[in-house]
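in:
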């Protein structure tokens, strides 16, 4: 077996609509129906411009006891952040300002990389990477 990349990230949330809106507004991801809905669990796939699912949102509260032990916003200690390959550095900074979201920039001009670090509504640390942008 050979791994070729990350397929998607799964995020549990207690506020599905606010979390989906966050990923739509900030990253331009489009929400689509989630196959888990058929199992009675609410959620969305958040898809990129090529329709690839990037983030799988699952409403923890609609899942009964399945995710009872999980608490969105609590530290996992093992997973530090999710890194996403992005385009549109200046537009993303402007959107973050417009949305009043705290963020930090790391400019690695020597390797052609600019990064934005922020936290989503569920305390998931995001690293947005812009290569040559």
């Amino acid at each position: 077996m050979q791994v070729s990349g990350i397929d998607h990230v799964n995020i549990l949330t207690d506020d599905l609509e606010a979390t989906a809106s966050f990923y739509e507004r900030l990253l331009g991801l489009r929400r689509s129906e989630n196959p888990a809905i058929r199992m009675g669990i609410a959620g969305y796939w958040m898809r990129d411009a090529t329709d690839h699912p990037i983030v799988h949102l699952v409403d923890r509260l609609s899942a009964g006891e399945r995710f009872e032990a999980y608490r969105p916003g609590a530290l996992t200690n093992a997973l530090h952040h999710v890194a996403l390959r992005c385009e549109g550095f200046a537009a993303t900074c402007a959107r973050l300002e417009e949305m009043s979201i705290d963020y930090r920039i790391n400019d690695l001009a020597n390797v052609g990389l600019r990064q934005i670090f922020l936290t989503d509504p569920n305390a998931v640390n995001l690293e947005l990477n812009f290569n040559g942008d």
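note: Residues 16-27 form the longest helix (12 residues).
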